[in-house]
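Extended Data, record Fibronectin type-III domain-containing protein
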Amino acid sequence: NNQVLPSSLKYQTLFNDRVLSSSFSPNLTFEAILYVANVTKTDYGIYQCKAENKLGIDVSDIILTGLTVPDPPSQVEITNISHSSLLIHWIPGIDGGS
């Protein structure tokens, strides 16, 4: 959000509680974008952006998970029947991220 943070800031990026990067700056304006290219199952986990200064610590978590099986449809009903066909309506379930 482009906030200017108080001086003496320590900034860290973590993955599953392991530090990926760390820096220190006396005056820091920061905006972060997380890119995870060519994702595999080993990339799934909790990514954290952690900022710390003399006033305290703030952490933001991003959870990366894989695709899941979709939920079943609901309110399935046959709305029209003929001698050679039928018409079915339903509300789709959550698609599982696919």
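Summary. The two ends are 29 Å apart (CA to CA).
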